[in-house]
Amino acid sequence: MTEKQHRSRCDKDEKFVRHAGDKSTFPFICALRCARKGIMYAFATQKNLKVHICFAIAAILLGFLLSVSEAGWLAIVLCIAIVMSLEVLNTAIESVVDMVSPEWNALAMRAKDCAAGAVYIAAIGSLIVAAIVYIPRIIYIVGTFISG
Predict the structure, then answer these.
(1) Reduced to 3 states, what is the DSSP secondary structure of residue 63?
(2) Least C-beta-crowded within 10 Å: which of 4, 6, 26, 57?
(3) H or E element, residue 140
(4) How far apart are CA 146 and CA 142, in angstroms?
């Protein structure tokens, strides 16, 4: 299959879904396009992802303002990536649960609640990391300002 055929396969066939029995090749660029579509779907449909993005931007701006260390930046970036990834994964889980259980079901509710709980745990962890990274810098800057 030529590159043009591969491109048309992943661009035009919106209903294309790979499954365990599919032995055909799937170009890496198509995988990236699928990932981008998933992220864009989550961003378009999930209010919480937009909230997380606002907090991520605030965390990055605060990091620049406070001149955090390399280790601090590593922690900030990892927290942002983990929370965002879990929010997109939560969206995927909710979509699958809605597909297989269109009617209300206690197990479906548990699955959705657990997926949302994973995002919540990561968000709380991120707030703790933020406190560890930012508070000492704020105390140092305020102390320097007061004494000097």
Answers:
(1) helix
(2) 4
(3) helix 106-147
(4) 6
Distances in Å between the alpha carbon of 1 and those of 4, 73, 82, 105?
8, 44, 37, 44
Residue 72: half-sphere exposure toward Cβ, Cα within 13 Å:
18
> Catalytic: which of 3, 14, 70, 87?
87
Model pTM? Answer: 0.84
Lowest mean pLDDT among 25-29, 52-56, 84-88, 122-126: 25-29
User: Residue 26 — left, alpha, or beta (φ > 0 → left; ψ -120 to 50 → alpha)?
Assistant: beta
Token duo for residue 61: 């701006």
Please list the alpha-helical segments (H only) found in 3-105. 3-12, 28-45, 47-66, 70-100
Residue-wise pLDDT tens digits, 97-129: 999 999 999 999 999 999 999 999 999 999 999
